[in-house]
Design brief:
Elements (H helix, E strand, L loop, with lengths): L18 H54 L13 H43 L13 H28 L6 H13 L6 H12 L6
Helix pairs in contact: 1-2, 1-4, 2-3, 3-5
Length: 212
Amino acid sequence: MPLSKSPGDGTPRRPVLPASARKIKDNAADWHNLMMKWERLNDNGFTTANKIVNMKISEQFQDNKMEIACDNSAPGSEKPAPKYSEELDNCCEELLETLKHMTKIQLKMEKLTSTTKAICDLEAFHHRAGNRTAPIFHTWPTPYFYEVSLKLSEMYKKELQLKQTIVQEIAHSADQDLMMVYLSSWLYQPYIENSSKLLLEAMLLETGHRQC
């Protein structure tokens, strides 16, 4: 379920947060919503990639049968040209479209990280000026929000690069074992560590989106 952002100053239901705190709380909600969208796209992409692999394997099986038939026919007979598959082409386009959406999400994650860095720089400036140094929520120092955002952003950046390779190669590979590796890599997302969910939940708890 998507998380909503902080209410505006016009209708406060709780004590009004400072601007930097409100922005960090909104960023935490954005992180949650973007990661949920990414997971849905990952599931959709896996379904499409699985169709591509099944079609490729079926195609190879049919090609092998035709080659055997040609070998058993009269000498000098030509082998039939590979058959164009509109369904395979459509699935490749669908997977490419999924990748485009994932790319947009990853760019938004990078923007969230940049915004958090700017807030940290502002907080550091106030700290040098002798202003408030207490945590803006419960226990996290402001720079830790940036550390978490950067760590998450780097995970998704590496995972996106892997998915770009898979999209480029999966429909052109003739090696069934390699195609299965591509499928497994897409599904299990090796660059998105298990700690990502823990980091997100900790951030949501710190900013008040989650209750103890």
